[in-house]
């Protein structure tokens, strides 16, 4: 399950606007907004990867929230 709040929380923690995250990640701001508010139900893997990298998150943090690191 995709954990949208992780993206929003991390962005707000960094005090970044959606526009700034868009500039860093290369993902259009409207797409980030749609992902955060849940209107984009199936974001592309590539966009999620770019957002995760910009926020210094692992994809597991977004797609498997609450899972312990298995390594």
TrEMBL record:
SUPFAM superfamilies: lambda repressor-like DNA-binding domains. This is Helix-turn-helix transcriptional regulator. PANTHER family: HTH-TYPE TRANSCRIPTIONAL REGULATOR (PTHR46797), METHYLPHOSPHONATE SYNTHASE (PTHR46797:SF1). Residues 7-62 form the HTH cro/C1-type domain. The keyword DNA-binding applies. One of its GO terms (molecular function) is DNA binding. CDD domains: HTH_XRE. Keywords: DNA-binding. The keyword DNA-binding applies. One of its GO terms (cellular component) is cytosol. It comes from Priestia flexa. The lineage of its organism: Bacteria, Bacillati, Bacillota, Bacilli, Bacillales. Gene3D superfamilies: lambda repressor-like DNA-binding domains.
